[in-house]
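Now for one protein, fold included:
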Amino acid sequence: MSLVAMSASGTEAKEPVFTVPLFINGKEHHPEKTFDVVSPATGKVAHRCGASSVADAGAAVEAAAEAFKTWRKTTPTQRRDIFLKAAEIMNSRREELAGYMREETGAAKPWCDFNLNVATDILKDIAGRIPTLEGSFPAMMDPDTSGIIMREPYGVVLSVAPWNTPYILGTRSVAFPIAAGNTSVLKGTEAAPRTTFAIASVFHEAGLPNGVLNVIIHEPSAGAAVTSAIIANPPRQEDQLHGQYGCRAHHRGARWRESHAGGLGAWR
């Protein structure tokens, strides 16, 4: 399809710019407010992205909390099969996904390929680990008693991923919690929203149930309000944080004494 179409008057008319949606409860969500995503490779607007509001963030958390009720009961083999399928789909969509990353981050093809190779390997590796999740029988002080330690999922996990290695850190931040029976709200970076959305689309295509993985993207000025609203939301139980924005979320989450797992950059 041509990038430029002719209007009825004979003048050139550009096709509408694509808008990246949010992903909430298994469906695309298109907020009225949007913002431009500028490609560093060209300096031009690559596409637009829906701007998550505090209400959108709350809806994502609620969807994840509802999905957790059934996802936590799935068997290890059910979760393993979804992860293996996701790895297969990610590999089959390699050119498409690499194109999003090149456009949004300006990365060279070898770096995009490396990201997808590692992200695919992460999915395969975690798939193999899922059936090994097990409890234990600890030694008891009283010989007439016995104990069992059971591993249970936390609940809703907030995942925050940066732009520089979007497929690696984005995939890793949601894959480990979901594999263990948790659900996730992935707060992607405004610099690479289409790349972030692609991760959710891969999981959804692989058969991940609605609400298990949700994606929100906000404009830079809304970061504090949206992130604080998610952290303060009661259903959310843990954070997977990466990068300097993860540092800020970690600082805010400490007020609620939450569980955190982070690979954090500098906080200026």
User: Anything to note?
Assistant: The two ends are 45 Å apart (CA to CA). Residues 1-9, 241-257 have pLDDT under 50 and may be disordered. The first strand starts at residue 4 and ends at 6. The CA atoms of residues 233 and 262 lie 20 Å apart.
